[in-house]
Amino acid sequence: MAEQQRIHPVPEPEHELPVQKPSVPLVPKGSFSSEKGDPEKQQQQQEPPFRRTIPYYPPLKPPKRRCCSCKRCLCCTCCLLLLIIIIIAALSAAFYFVFQPKIPKYSVDSMRITQFNFNNDMSLLFATFNVNITARNPNKKIGIYYESGSQLSVWYTGVQLCEGSLPRFYQGHQNTTVLSLDLSGQTQNVTGLLQALQVDQQRGSIPLILRAKVPVKLKIGKLKLMKWNFLVKCKLDVDRLSANNAIRIRNSDCQFGFRL
User: Fold this and answer.
1) Hey, CA dihedral for 101, 226, 173, 110, is it positive or negative?
2) DSSP per residue over 152-209, as a string?
3) DSSP 34
4) Domains of the chain, start order
5) How far apart are CA 229 and CA 216, in angstroms?
6) What is the pLDDT of residues 78-106, one digit of tens each?
7) What is the pTM (predicted TM-score) of this model?
């Protein structure tokens, strides 16, 4: 016979009771059984609540503006220019009080015409003037070197009649020099000039202008300064313009200027 399958009884497991967390503390309030107090509260006090830490970044400095550097540069430039102006003014004042410079004086004393005629068809004018000019140097401590390259000319109604130059010479302190100069030239297209000249000669008043540009060097003590240009403009009023006749200067007014 086949063996019958044996069934062994299995004991039923004991029902596990759920463990409940006591709702009442093991140690009642007011009890001094623990020196450190309630362990749960102690744990809660030891563990601080979670806080998000934000890193600290220092505020960025604003970038330096370029305009500030430009203003600083402009201010320095203005201060430098002001300093240069003050130095130049101080030197000029010292020069003025030590040497007491005075403006040279010029005058046209007399004028004579040796040639003043037209060609056959009255289209060309030939003129030669002899002019006596007086140059005065009133300075006590400044001498004047008249250099070569000077230009003198006589003008009538905006037309140049003749030209010449000054000789090269040295004029000492408080010196007066009389110069006799010959100026000559020729002028083309003089039809309008001839008509105006006839009208002025009938009135007996002919306006002339003498212009002079003279390069000079000033001598102060033993020091010879750089070259300057003396500019002289004399307004003349004469009675006539004709050859081989004495010309009377009715009025003369000379103005002086200079430049480098």
Assistant:
1) negative
2) EEEEETTEEEEEE-PPPEEE-TTEEEEEEEEEEEEEE--HHHHHHHHHHHHHT-EEEE
3) -
4) 105-259 (2.60.40)
5) 6
6) 899 999 999 999 988 887 888 888 999 99
7) 0.65
